[in-house]
Amino acid sequence: MINRRDVNIISPWHHGAGFYVNATQAPWNRHYRMYDYVLNELPTLVESMFPLNDQRSIAGHSMGGHGALVLALRNPERYRSVSAFSPISNPVNYPRGKKAFAAYLGKDTAAWAEYDASLLMRQASRFVPALVDQGEADDFLAEQLKPETLEAAARISGYPLELNRREGFDHGYYFIASFIEQHLRFHAGYLAR
User: Fold this and answer.
1) Catalytic site residues?
2) Hey, which residues does 164 pair with through a beta bridge?
3) Would you tell me which of 2, 13, 57, 178 could form a disulfide with 81, CB atoms 3.0–4.6 Å apart?
């Protein structure tokens, strides 16, 4: 049996979470470039192995939903659509997000805004159609996810956001399994154009 103390494990939730950023602060800046990885390296790898075209959509859940939204908002020319299940919508305004951004990006909050979906959506002038599903029974809803900030941002910028609040659903697998077909059909509609 391996004792956890004997293994060098870095759990992102214990060290501020990932948030799909390119870290600028030590020690994270040496290797932590998740934003670049998902934007460039992963698609290059996938596209080198499969006969694909240049049409892309992006989706994610929770932290991955946050990453998907940020990538699409910052790179609207690369994506036809974006969707998310239970995304962290406004990380600059909750304690764990502030802790992570300070660790990864430093104290300059202007740098943080580049990785906050609600702030990016509020200022957007180029749009990628967005679908978000949020369970109303999600334990993380009030403190961490804050879908109302996305709604407010979309109203301000006129962003094409469809946000569905799902009564009785939490943050887990059954929630995603219940609505994943709708997300796939949403993306298929934009990829077929």
Assistant:
1) 62, 138, 171
2) 133
3) 57
Q: What is the pLDDT along the chain (193 residues), one digit of tens a residue?
A: 333 333 333 334 444 457 899 999 999 898 889 999 999 999 999 999 999 988 999 999 999 999 999 999 999 999 999 999 999 999 999 888 999 999 999 999 999 999 999 999 999 999 999 999 999 999 999 999 999 999 999 999 999 999 999 999 999 999 999 999 999 999 999 998 8
Nearest to 116 by CA among 137, 146, 143: 146
Model confidence pTM above 0.85? yes
CA angle, corner 146, sides to 141 and 151, nearest 5? 130
User: What's the helix, strand, coil split of the chain in %, to 5?
Assistant: 50, 10, 40
Strand order in the sheet with 130-135: 57-61, 81-85, 130-135, 161-166
| Dist CA 79 CA 57 (whole Å) | 5
